[in-house]
Design brief:
This protein is mainly alpha-helical. Helices cover about 80% and strands about 0% of the residues. It has one domain. The protein has six helices and no strands. It is elongated.
């Protein structure tokens, strides 16, 4: 669960799931009207975005998590957490 949350949060934060990156998925699903996941996968890679493009997005996501987010997490101190909780609850 934690891994999926991290992946989903980072993907959303860095907009890797936006239409400009993954294409018009809802519209494409309606156009394809697939009966199976395999049919959808073949359609998507043929008409929406290439598999190589999606692999590149996955690599970008990995960099964002392992470099950007990791550095941000390392910069958070215990005092930051205490101050944040105080602000959240008291202010």
């Amino acid at each position: 669960m934690a891994k999926e949350w991290i992946l989903n949060s980072a993907m959303n934060r860095f907009q890797l799931n936006f239409k400009r990156n993954v294409g018009p998925t809802s519209e494409s699903i309606r156009a394809c009207a697939p009966k199976t996941v395999e049919e959808w996968r073949a359609y998507y890679y043929a008409y929406v975005k290439s598999e190589a493009h999606i692999v590149e997005l996955g690599k970008k996501l990995y960099v964002k998590i392992t470099e950007v987010i990791a550095a941000e997490v390392e910069a958070v101190s215990e005092e930051d957490c205490i101050a944040y909780m105080k602000q959240l609850v008291i202010d």
